[in-house]
Design goal:
A hairpin with a 2-residue loop joins strand 7 and strand 8 (about 135-145). The two termini are about 15 Å apart. About 10% of the residues lie in helices and about 50% in strands. With about 150 residues, it is mainly beta.
């Protein structure tokens, strides 16, 4: 990971408390993101878009919206499972709706063995848009460089 940015769009529902990268070693970076929920989330959607940098960032492989509550009821059939497998040890989002209090990813370190899609070497941006019905809660943007091993 080379950069991270969090934006909250609706402060009456959720706010960003922490959004940072921390260099642990020269080649190891940890991400911590924490959203404080000010209301109980009964329904929750996540839009995910993976972009690869050519001259500009262009859509690559993943671009879709997932009902998060439905995903946690049946993880096996969603494209979100690829991303969830990467973060499941680092997050408190391991149950179905409702979500209350906070949603976090703590000290996330990406691991090649948890990535179940093959990415070519390159620079990428993954965009996450968080939605409840009729409201955009915020965005999370993560820039990273991937090298094939």
């Amino acid at each position: 990971m080379t950069n991270i940015a969090c934006t909250d769009m609706n402060n009456s529902i959720a706010t960003v408390e922490v959004c940072r990268l921390k260099a642990v070693k020269r080649d190891v970076v940890e991400a911590t993101v924490k959203f404080r929920l000010l209301q109980k989330l009964e329904r929750f959607n996540l839009h995910v878009k993976l972009l690869r940098k050519y001259n500009t960032y262009e859509p690559f492989i993943i671009n879709g919206t997932v009902d998060v509550c439905a995903f946690f009821r049946n993880k096996g059939k969603s494209p979100l499972r690829v991303l969830y497998k990467l973060i499941e040890k680092f997050t408190n989002t391991n149950h179905s709706c409702p979500f209350e209090h906070e949603i976090f990813i703590n000290r996330f370190r990406p691991e090649h063995e948890n990535l179940i899609i093959n990415l070519p070497t390159g620079e990428y941006l993954i965009l996450f848009g968080f939605y409840v019905p009729k409201n955009l809660l915020g965005y999370l943007r993560v820039w990273f460089t991937f090298r094939e091993v």
